[in-house]
Amino acid sequence: MKNKHAVMRNLITGMTGSALLMISDWLMGATGKGNVSNGVVQSNWASAAAWRYEAAMLIAGFAVFMLYSGMKEMIRQVKLTRTRRDVWSIRGAKLFEVGGIATIVATLFLQAKGCILPILYHKLYATSLMGADMLTVVDEVFFYISIPFYIFSIIIVFFTSVPFIYQIWQGRLKVPRWFILLNPLVFWVVGWILRRFGSYLITDFTACMVSFGLLMMFWVTFQHVSKIPDRSEA
Q1: For 132-181, what is each residue's pLDDT tens digit?
Q2: Which tens digit of pLDDT belongs to each residue from 31-59?
Q3: How many CA atoms lie less than 13 Å away from 138 in the CB half-sphere?
Q4: Can you tell me whether residue 170 is helix, strand or coil?
Q5: Which of the chain's ends, N or C, has fewer CB atoms near its CB within 10 Å?
């Protein structure tokens, strides 16, 4: 591999961006003790400090640039592992590219959704509106962005994770097969299961599971690249 050190550096940048995104997700998604979920609306939004959501957006803004640096390298590595003898690896690489691009394009949109709705509810809480009216307003605002929100979320999680799992399972990424567990889809499922226990500590912990899965995917790719000989020094 040519410029191996540059590739690894870009993947480390991607990991750093994912770590920042985890912080952003936690600031945005952790609701704390005594929270009651009313669909989209969380009761503790009313008492949450506004700076959390402002900081979450700012951190996500920095994270996106770092994610781009790492994601373009990860897309390249997945493409390099495809083979003409396996049509599914070719199709998977294309899907992964779509998912990777969607991750860069949609991250700020998804973070904005996660921050604007709590801020809106917080502001409405200070008015004379009744509780049911506030819930209705927030739900209606979410309705207008719900379709792209769900579409982008599905593309990001499934289009990156499934092809990545396939390439590992087929042995094209030079990592142990159990690494198929290290991706956003698996961690999203784990987070969904953990939230069923109902403890607020567990719920808050799972706020950043998808971004943690993204970090792990960068790390797996880094491990793959580290085992490839550096031809630039030959």
Answers
A1: 777 888 888 888 888 888 999 999 999 999 999 999 998 888 899 999 99
A2: 888 777 877 888 888 888 888 989 999 99
A3: 28
A4: coil
A5: C
Taking 60 as the threshold, does the pLDDT of residue 234 lie above it? no
CB 80 within 8 A of CB 4: no
Q: Which residues of 25-43 are buried (b: 16+ CB within 10 A; e: fewer)?
A: bbbbbbbeeebeebeebbb
Interval 193-208 mean pLDDT:
80
| DSSP, res 226 | H
CA neighbours closer than 13 Å in the CB half-sphere of residue 172? 21
Residue 30, Ramachandran bin (φ over 0: left; ψ between -120 and 50: alpha; else beta): beta
Q: What is the C-alpha to C-alpha distance for residues 24 and 115, in angstroms, rounded to an integer?
A: 10
Residue (of 72, 22, 8, 12) closest to 187 by Cα position? 22
Alpha-carbon distance of 32 to 53, in angstroms, equals 15
What average pLDDT does the segment 9-14 reach? 94
By the 8 A CB rule, do 222 and 77 touch? no
Token digits for 23?
């912080």
